[in-house]
Amino acid sequence: MNRADFPILSEKVYNRELVYLDNAATTQKPQVVLDAMMYGYTHFNANIHRGVHYLSQVATAHHEEARERVARFIGARSGKEIIFTKGTTDSINMLAYSFGEAEVREGDEIIVSYLEHHSNIVPWQMLCERKKAILKVIPLKEDLTIDVEAFRALLSDRTRLVSIAQVSNVLGTLNPIEAIIRIAHERHVPVCIDGAQSAPHMKIDVQELDCDFFVCSAHKMYAPTGLGVLYGKEQWLQSLPPAEGGGEMIEHVRFEHTTYNTLPYKFEAGTPDFIGTYALAAALDYLDGIGMDKIREHERELTRYCEEQLAGIPEVVVYAAGQDKYGAVSFNVRSERVIHPFDVGTLLDHQGIAVRTGHHCAEPLIDYLGVPGTVRVSFGLYNEKEDVDRFVEALKKAIGMLE
Ligand code: PMP
């Protein structure tokens, strides 16, 4: 779908046509996004919010329009609820610091799940160390789905926050976040959704989900790298303290006492990536132009087709096999033992197929699977069944060489 919009996809690797199946790590950029970056630097590059001069006002207007664009894309009430960050990791760290300062005391509890990315584990662990709080982990059922009943039992009067991925970056599966949010809210516990792997693949509506916080990365959504979003319900963001100090986040600075800016600026210290936000808005226009529902169905179909093809290779073990997947499929090759995923990935690479191998920044889940890592193929809107066919053919060849 729309492959011709992505110049990099015509690059050759090892003199072969590139099959890019590492979209969960980062996506390629369409020409409209590349053009937007070039346009920004060519026509309105000036620091925002501070200048009375023309270019600064144009740059500020674009940046604030981009904020409203993001708000519309994820269904937020207004741009006040959209904080621009450096990415999902930065968003979660900011939240862990800010929320932790205001809401977490010794003996309190934070809940994450077993299949989280390190970005949604370590910042909470660091908070727990700082505050002498306790990190609790929702276990998985045998089929690698989240154990919702176990989650219910984990909640206590000391639970302060739940943070969980919408889509697993390893398994590609959709977590039951509607149930998690409903159950947490019955106990008045707020929920943060890690949308790094969902926002590129499906329509997000934070109001419908009723999550309290939502985080995602622009670079996984066909937009520039170094940029992300922290959404928070306005009443939460109003009550939380800033995570970082500096320019723009202040109202007045005196050595005796500093007062803070209004939302969302209170959380945005320093010069933001205003060219990046302009290009992000172009990426969101591009995605909505295709339609997120169409993208979701296209990628679901690709993962289904991929799994069907993999099922025909006896040495391949797919994780969470048969479950609906949103963009990613993880597997290993076993003959007498698990063949190391690096070996499989290297042999695929030499045939022009870019996949991810290793622990995918989710070591607890990989340990739980009892393997050294997995091979992950992950799809973007521009992938087609022919990419799967070339990958499967290359995989069969690789297995032949490894056995
Ligand atoms: N959470 C999940 C589920 C992810 O897949 C990723 C990226 N692999 C992250 C968080 C971190 O995103 P970033 O590196 O863009 O900050």
Can you walk through the features of this model?
It is a single chain. β14 (328-334) and β15 (338-339) form a beta hairpin. 39% of the residues lie in helices and 17% in strands. The radius of gyration is 22 Å and the shape is globular. It has helices spanning 31-43, 54-74, 88-103, 122-131, 148-154, 177-186, 206-209, 234-239, 274-290, 292-311, 341-349, 363-369, 385-402, and strands at 12-13, 16-17, 19-20, 82-85, 109-113, 134-138, 159-165, 191-194, 213-217, 228-232, 250-253, 258-260, 316-318, 328-334, 338-339, 353-354, 356-358, 374-378. The strands form five sheets. It has a seven-stranded mixed beta sheet with strand order 4-10-9-8-7-5-6, with helices on both faces. It has two domains: 3-21 and 291-402, Aspartate Aminotransferase, domain 1, CATH 3.90.1150; 32-289, Aspartate Aminotransferase, domain 2, CATH 3.40.640.10. 48% of the residues are buried. It contains 13 helices and 18 strands. With 403 residues, the chain is an alpha/beta fold. It starts with 11 loop residues before the first strand and ends with a helix. 4'-deoxy-4'-aminopyridoxal-5'-phosphate binds next to α3.
